[in-house]
Amino acid sequence: MRILKRLCYTLLALLALIVLTPLAVIQFGSAGMATTSKVVLNMVLGYGGEAPDASDIQQQLDVAEGFGVSLYASDLGKIRFLHSTDAGDLLVSRPRSGDIVLLERDRNGDGLPDAQRVLLSGLTRPHGLDIAAGWLYIAESNGVGKIAFDSAQGQTNGSYQRIVDDLDDKGNHWTKTLRAGDDGWLYLSGGSSCNVCEEEDPTRATIMRFRMDGSEFGVYATGLRNSVGLDWAPWNNALYATDNGRDLLGDNFPPCELNRIEKGGFYGWPYVNASTPDPDFGGKNAAATAKNIPPSHEFRAHNAPLGLRFLRHSTVGGFERTALVALHGSWNRSEPDGYKVVSLHWQDDGTIVEQDFLSGFLQGDRLIGRPVDIAEANDGSLYISDDYSGSIYRVVAGKTAVSSRRLELPQQPQGSSKSDPMLGAYSPEQRDHLRRRGEQLFNDYNCSGCHRGAALSGLVERYELNELASFFSAPTPPMPAFPLSAEDREALAVYLLLRPNTD
What we know:
- This protein is α+β, with helices and mostly antiparallel strands.
- It is built from nine helices and 29 strands.
- It has helices at residues 2-28, 31-45, 54-60, 286-290, 421-425, 428-444, 459-462, 465-471, 486-498; strands at residues 62-63, 67-73, 82-84, 90-94, 99-103, 116-120, 129-132, 135-140, 143-150, 155-164, 176-180, 185-190, 206-211, 218-222, 230-232, 239-243, 256-261, 272-273, 276-277, 297-299, 305-310, 322-327, 340-346, 352-359, 362-363, 366-367, 371-376, 382-386, 391-397.
- The chain has a five-stranded antiparallel beta sheet with strand order 1-24-23-22-21. A four-stranded antiparallel beta sheet has the order 2-29-28-27, with no helix packed on it. It has a four-stranded antiparallel beta sheet with strand order 3-4-5-6, with no helix packed on it.
- Helix 6 (428-444) crosses helix 9.
């Protein structure tokens, strides 16, 4: 009963946050509340901002001494994780579009990719990706697949093969991150289904491990609420992972974490936050609490550390034993925090010093980006993805002139009532029945309590019917996952895509 009550309080708090934010901005002009509103819309519905121009980058972004930053690509939509191939091409995952995009390397030296193309489509919310032994491995929300990949040509060969199936992707934290280790194993992170709970599925809130063909699958480490970034320290091959702390315990607790991952290790969740017992679950499992491994480094609460990348090719002094971490930024602090890339520097005594590396994405109430992942090319170039504006930034050693032009990269075609073949396939009677059923669901779940005004406008330009219906089965937090059947999700999607914006 206590858990149910806290869940209800959690949902009410989230609803209040979203509903009251516009009013707070109008009445008080709060920069923090304005930014929170933008971030919640970005998380739940995919809304973002315009890509920054050269002036924005020069005036707002601040990069570490010895480096220069430029806008490498834009208008890419809800991009997430990156991988730089040996040839210098950049692979980009787009969970909402269900595809992997390839940005061709900059052969002509103008600071922009030479072209863009969809490398693989029809995937189930792809997120993490890596290349090993001539294979491109992709972590979908419910499994892992591979396809032969020629890095020199930037081309796939043969068919896509699933090697791991039936992973749970319901509820929150459905993204999976995958990395190939030098030990011949693939490592896969899977987040929790909730803010805080005792999971029934043993693969949730863990890091898993299996062979390159999917065999010998097992859980490698547990107690990891949402470990999104994975990488190995090149000087000792230790595996590290970022981890997002739970919500709704105040502005400054609990910290987010960087953990050194050991086989069989337990990292606290849901019973311990860093080194402090959880106020709800701390007394429920004394044996697990006693096994808790404290973090190697603590980030500020709600900074949401995502991508993690140890530098292997940097020529800038002071970055020899360094990792970069993308801080996606808070959605639930009274004063927004994060929204930058930080560098972690390992000291001789084993301590870690955190410094800003690329900052300035948030200044006052002006938000231009939310960093997600970092990729390092063999030439030392760094690429940073931003899922707020759909942009990728390039950071290189030395001062780099910001490109004076922008490559026009076409977005994935989006559905509309005129072009979506599924909407057009319904008879008038079927369309009307689904629209009326969807409207009933919309009202039954009081969707208008959160999504007001322009919050539902433009859906038809960003979603196809199948994509929107699929989103309802595992919505992005803080939107709750309602108990909708496949028919309910279809009806709700039809209603929203046909619904005029009358709010």
